[in-house]
Write a structure and sequence with these properties.
The chain is an alpha+beta fold. The chain has 8 helices and 9 strands.
């Protein structure tokens, strides 16, 4: 299938609707999740059957959540702030885990694309440059969707410690602000049990 055809599939549309726009990052997450699911021979997780670990907080993570069914709320979507396009997936039933990492040369924007990215970040792009950026971004997305997975990613089995199933903790009011806080997140300071916001707040 071409990139344009993949974007029009119901599967990808769900990722697009959730994220809000088409971009290479979303496509990377989509392809990484597909590769992980295929390697594990797993289906989308209805509950906590699968766990996903992402090492960035970029666009692709939205596609991973949609494709795998792993979410923060269920406790099976784990974020590690490493700044890497790396995704690890594992199934609780099979006990297998796979690490999917983007190869260094998998997606290299052209010099013009990089210039436009910088202009967009600095809010310096003209209307014509914004349109050019969107066009290049779209084409980059199609490239990601069309390339073979083995050209995009290093896909290898790995071993990780399985996190426990999601647990429900009681909430208690913070002794300073009064806001309900998970009991395990309250900290005792000077005889008070306070939330982290109050602990970190600077004295007025």
């Amino acid at each position: 299938m071409t990139g344009e055809e993949i974007v029009r599939t119901d599967e990808f549309k769900k990722c697009l609707d959730f994220h809000g726009h088409l971009c290479p990052g979303l496509s990377i997450g989509y392809r990484a999740a597909k590769a992980g699911l295929e390697w594990l021979a797993e289906n989308r997780s209805a509950d906590e059957e699968m766990v996903a670990i992402v090492e960035n907080d970029a666009c692709g993570c939205d596609a991973v959540q949609v494709m795998t069914g792993c979410t923060f709320g269920k406790g099976n979507f784990i974020f590690k702030d490493h700044g890497k396009q790396v995704f690890t997936f594992f199934g609780r039933k099979s006990g297998k885990a796979v690490r999917v990492s983007l190869k260094p040369d998998a997606l290299a924007p052209s010099e013009r694309h990089r210039d436009l990215i910088q202009k967009m970040r600095n809010k310096e792009a003209s209307e014509e440059e914004q349109e050019e950026f969107r066009s290049l971004h779209e084409q980059g997305s199609y490239v990601v969707l069309e390339r073979p997975a083995e050209e995009l990613f290093k896909i290898e089995p790995t071993q990780v410690a399985f996190p426990p199933h999601a647990r429900i903790h009681a909430s208690n009011p913070c002794d300073r602000c009064g806001e309900m806080t998970m009991a395990t997140r309250l900290e005792e300071v000077g005889g008070e049990k306070i939330c982290r916001d109050c602990k970190e707040a600077k004295p007025s």
